[in-house]
């Protein structure tokens, strides 16, 4: 009788924990105000990527207007950066929206389910159900913290390179202004006169500056890919490893694998 009362008390506490998690913790975890710092970091990166996209397109258009074909490959390469920046934008927006969705799923579904399984394990098949409930709880907490942790880790690297990225944007804007002035001069003085007067500057100074800007964009793109894509993937892999070590669940093993038919293998 005493053992039954003890189990019922634990069930009541688990039910209370499930209700609190579903009604209160889930709302707190999915509220944007809870992740103000993380959302601000994502918004800052998003704004930087948008500026890089705009300035690379502007610089590409300006360089392509220069006389001659010396700077054409540079202009084409700068135009190609738009696709990579678009990919980074998709990743950043996905992280921003998943931040609140995962919080709601973890505390409104997985944690209450884990509490229910543990409560059921007090009466039926305790070894299996209790073990499964602990695994679910660990998985819920891991998927909830994976995005904030990845953003905080990437911020350490992004902050140290932020001044360099800002310098890249500034240099691209300056180059676009100079090429625009050269184009306007060509329209005022005539193409032949403009080429004769500014051929040296166009072929030398502006082309060298365009090459320098291209190198800066390559560095900025590498930083954005590392901080926005690679580090989140590495953090996710690390959390999957933690889940496997704590629960024994290998999520990668759950993915379907192609099996060969016995008859096909025998016919080889």
Question: What's the gist of this structure?
Answer:
The longest helix has 64 residues, at 126-189. The protein has one domain (2-251). The protein is built from seven helices and no strands.
Give keywords:
mainly alpha; 268 residues; 7 helices; single chain; 0% strand
Question: What would you note in describing this structure?
Answer:
The chain is mainly alpha-helical and 268 residues long. It has one domain (2-251). It contains 7 helices and no strands. It has helices at residues 2-30, 36-64, 72-121, 126-189, 191-247, 251-254, 262-267. Helix 3 runs antiparallel to helix 4 (126-189) and helix 4 runs antiparallel to helix 5 (191-247). The longest helix is centred in the middle third of the chain and has 64 residues, at 126-189. It starts with a helix and ends with a helix.
């Amino acid at each position: 009788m005493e053992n039954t009362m003890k189990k019922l008390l634990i069930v009541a506490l688990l039910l209370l924990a499930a209700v609190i998690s579903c009604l209160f913790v889930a709302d707190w975890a999915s509220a944007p105000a809870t992740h103000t710092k993380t959302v601000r970091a994502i918004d800052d990166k998003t704004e930087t990527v948008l500026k890089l996209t705009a300035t690379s397109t502007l610089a590409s258009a300006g360089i392509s207007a220069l006389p001659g074909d010396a700077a054409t490959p540079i202009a084409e390469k700068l135009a190609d950066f738009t696709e990579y920046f678009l990919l980074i934008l998709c990743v950043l927006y996905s992280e921003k929206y998943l931040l609140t969705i995962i919080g709601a799923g973890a505390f409104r579904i997985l944690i209450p389910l884990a509490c229910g399984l543990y409560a059921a394990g007090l009466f039926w098949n305790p070894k299996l159900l209790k073990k499964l409930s602990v695994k679910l709880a660990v998985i819920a907490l891991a998927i909830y913290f994976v995005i904030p942790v990845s953003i905080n880790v990437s911020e350490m690297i992004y902050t140290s390179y932020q001044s360099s990225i800002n310098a890249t944007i500034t240099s691209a804007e300056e180059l676009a202004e100079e090429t625009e002035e050269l184009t306007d001069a060509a329209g005022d003085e005539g193409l032949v006169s403009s080429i004769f007067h500014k051929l040296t500057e166009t072929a030398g100074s502006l082309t060298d500056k365009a090459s320098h800007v291209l190198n800066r964009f390559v560095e900025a793109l590498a930083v954005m890919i590392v901080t926005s894509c690679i580090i989140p993937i590495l953090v996710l892999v690390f959390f999957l490893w933690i889940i496997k070590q704590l629960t024994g669940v290998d999520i990668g093993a759950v993915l379907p694998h192609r099996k060969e038919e016995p008859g096909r293998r025998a016919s080889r």
